[in-house]
Specification:
Blueprint lengths: L1 H23 L6 H23 L4 H15 L1 H11 L4 H25 L5 H32 L6 H27 L4 H22 L14 H29 L1
Helix pairs in contact: 1-2, 1-8, 2-3, 2-4, 3-6, 4-5, 4-6, 4-7, 5-6, 6-7, 7-8
Length: 253
């Protein structure tokens, strides 16, 4: 009963999040994030319907929909990276390639693991995929936070909330999934409670920080980030050119 109550609170906060964006007219400012929030809201409603009227199909539906939510979570990370690094086009371009490549590779891996088709195999596949995805996302979030701190990149209220909320959700989910892997069935009773509680905290953070649109501050001074990126890119290009030269000489000998 407590899990269902927490779930309905989460649905209410998701609805509030979407209504605030519709009333404020700033859905287009974070389209990927709000598309994911709308999908999350609809998945919750469909899960309730299946649980109520088609209980035999609930487990399969839950894990298939969980796969979609886990994979779709990368849209939030993509949105955060795009907005924070928007003033730095070179770095932003590299980040888009990095995040996109990681997402595609992990998605292909997850689809391959899901070919089993049985509920038990599906459950293990989705849990494994979610743990792997959250591990990579945690690293990407840490890298982004280090960039923000080291280069003093200013953050507005909206992006601070997005980053804080999603960072909390990803890291806590990774911790609970790791505990589940080590403790096994003894942790199952706590898993559903911890999952819903972490989701609720994340949605509370987003609801408070996304009540209105607040654009990210424009940096007052030129950052060393773009200069460092160009320097690293040039050094990488020089290293590749040197390696090609050595390979050409090796083949010609």
């Amino acid at each position: 009963m407590l899990v269902q109550i927490l779930g309905w609170f989460s649905e209410g906060l998701l609805a509030l999040l979407l209504i605030s964006a519709l009333k404020g007219g700033f859905l287009k400012q974070y389209p990927l994030f709000y598309a994911y929030a709308a999908g999350w809201f609809l998945v919750g409603l469909f899960r309730f319907y299946v649980f109520t009227f088609q209980l035999d199909s609930y487990l399969s539906f839950y894990w298939y929909s969980q796969f979609l939510l886990v994979a779709g979570g990368y849209s939030i990370l993509w949105q955060i990276y795009a907005h924070i690094l928007n003033p730095y086009p070179g770095t932003a371009r590299m980040a888009r390639v990095l995040v996109g490549a990681v997402f595609v590779s992990m998605l292909i891996q997850g689809l391959i693991m899901m070919l089993d088709g049985q509920t038990g195999g599906l459950t293990r596949s989705v849990v494994r995929l979610e743990r792997n995805l959250h591990s990579v996302q945690t690293i990407l979030i840490i890298v982004l936070v280090m960039l923000v701190w080291y280069y003093s990149i200013p953050l507005g209220k909206n992006l601070r909330g997005l980053l804080l909320g999603y960072g909390f959700l990803v890291t806590t989910r990774l911790i609970t999934l790791t505990l589940q892997a080590f403790l096994g069935t003894s942790f199952y009773a706590w898993w559903s409670y911890s999952e819903q509680a972490c989701v609720l905290v994340t949605l509370i953070v987003w609801s408070r920080t996304l009540r209105s649109y607040q654009p990210n501050p424009v940096p007052e001074h030129s950052s060393r980030l773009e200069h460092d990126y160009e320097l690293a890119a040039q050094r990488t290009a020089d290293a590749i050119a040197t390696a090609r030269g050595y390979l050409a000489k090796a083949f010609l000998q």
